[in-house]
Amino acid sequence: MSYRFVNVSENIIKILKIGFVTGLGTGFIPVAPATFACLISVVIWFFLIDFVYIYWAVLANLLVWGLIISHEWRKVWCKDPRKIVIDEYAALLLSLYFVPKKIISLVFAFILFRILDAVKPPPLRQLEKLPGAWGIMLDDLGAAIYTLFVFKILKFFFEPLF
C-alpha cells in the first residue's frame, strides 16, 4: 500500500516538474514555444506588478527552481531543448517589472525580448554555452537585461510613446 502511494507521489511530482519547466505545456507547442511561454510572464506581470514583494518572490523562485529543474530535465531531453521554456518566462519577468503598465510598453518589451533572445547578441551566445542549466538560464537573463536597457533608452527619447 505505501509503495503505491510513493509511486503516485513521484508521478505527481514528475508531472508538476514537467509542467513547470515546459511553461504549463507551452514548450510542447511545435511553433514558437518560447514566445507562447512568455505569455505566462505577461499574465504574472499583469496580476502581480502592484504587489512588489510577491512579484520578486515569484521571479526569484522561477529563477532558482528553473535552474534546478531545467538541469534535471536537460539530461533527459538534451542540452537546451526547445521544450524547456522556464528560462524565457522567468527572464522576461525581470524586464517587465520595469515596464509601465501600458499596453504599448508591454507589447514593445515583449517583442524586443523575443528578438534579443532569438538573435543573441554578444555575449549571450557565449552564455548559452555555459555548462548545465546555467547555459539555459543565463542567456535569457542577458536578453532580459538587454531588453531593459534598450527599452529605457528608447523611453528616454520617446517618453510620450511609452
Report on the structure:
It contains seven helices and no strands. It has helices spanning about 1-20, 35-50, 50-75, 85-95, 105-120, 125-130, 130-155. The termini are far apart. The mean pLDDT is about 90.
Q: What is the CA-CA span between the terminal residues? A: 60 Å
What is the helical fraction, as a range of percent? over 70%
**Average pLDDT rating:** 90
Which residues form runs of ≥5 with pLDDT under 50? none
**The number of domains:** 1
Largest sheet geometry: none
The 3D shape can be described as: globular
List keywords for this structure.
0% strand; mainly alpha; globular
In short:
This protein has seven helices and no strands. The chain has one domain (2-157).
Mind sketching the topology for me?
Layout (H helix, E strand, L loop, with lengths): L1 H20 L11 H16 L3 H26 L8 H12 L5 H17 L4 H5 L3 H26 L5
Helix pairs in contact: 1-3, 2-4, 3-4, 3-7, 4-5, 4-7, 5-7
